[in-house]
Structure formats: C-alpha cells, structure tokens
Amino acid sequence: MSKRLMLRVNQNKCVGCGLCVENCPIGAITIYLNKARIDPKRCVGCENCLRVCPPQAIEKIGVNEKDSIRMELQNLRQRIDFLKTRLSRYEDMRKKA
After folding, report:
1. Sequence-ordered alpha helix ranges (H) in the chain
2. Which residues form a coiled coil (predicted)?
3. Tally of CB atoms within 10 A around 11
4. What whole-number percentage of the chain has pLDDT above 90?
5. DSSP-derived pairing of the beta strands 58-64 and 35-38
6. Which of 23, 25, 75, 87 is 20 to 30 A from 40 in CA distance terms?
7. Does domain 3-96 correspond to CATH entry 3.30.70.20?
8. What was the pLDDT predicted at 45?
9. In this predicted model, what pLDDT tens digit does every residue of 61-96 receive, in sequence order?
10. How far apart are CA 35 and CA 15, in angstroms?
C-alpha cells in the first residue's frame, strides 16, 4: 500500500486564528468549532498554511489510503454531531416561538 503526504491540524495546538484559511488558495481549510480543519480531498499540498500558522499547528504526515479514509470518516462524524446540535437548537427555538 502506497503512502502519500498529507497536511493535518494538531487540534491541541490550533488557536483558530484563521490565517491558514486566508492563505489557502483553493479553500480546503475551514474553521469548525474554533479550530482549523483541512479537507484532505481538496488539499493540494501547497503548504501555504504550514508556513503561516503562528502556533505551528499544521503538520505533514505520511498516511496510507486506509488511514486517509479513517480521517475523513472522523471529520464526517464531527460534522454530523455539529449539525445535529444546530438542528436541535433550531427546533427548540421554533417551539418557543
């Protein structure tokens, strides 16, 4: 199984400043729950984010395809949890109205 280079955000170091988002030429990075997230499908590995990150929270990692899929699945689970929370708040707000 071949390995490929990827960039990831160390969530313990990320301060959510958004400099990586501003410097990503293709929009592969978003801020989610005050932390940066890199979409591995969109990232082209230009390393602009790596160079501008003040707390050095962005890291290069070599991953195989299986690990890449696991990381994407984890990101999707976090997104689902976030959307469920938003939906619940919206439903609560509508009940009160």
Report:
1. 19-23, 48-52, 65-96
2. 66-93
3. 12
4. 60
5. unpaired
6. 87
7. yes
8. 84
9. 876 767 767 777 877 888 888 899 999 999 999 998
10. 6
C-alpha neighbours within 13 Å on the C-beta side of residue 47: 5
- Greatest CA separation found in the chain? 55
Structure tokens at 5: 């280079």
47, amino acid identity: E
Residue 68 DSSP label: H
* Average pLDDT over every residue of 19-39: 95
CA distance 31 to 80: 15
Hey, what are 79's tokens? 């997104």
* Averaged pLDDT for residues 48-73: 84
Question: What is the per-residue burial (b if ≥16 Cβ within 10 Å, else e) of 15-43?
Answer: ebbebbbebbeeebbeeeeebbbbebeeb
The span from the CA of 89 to the CA of 43, in Å, is: 32
- Specify whether the CB–CB gap between 55 and 13 falls below 8 A: yes
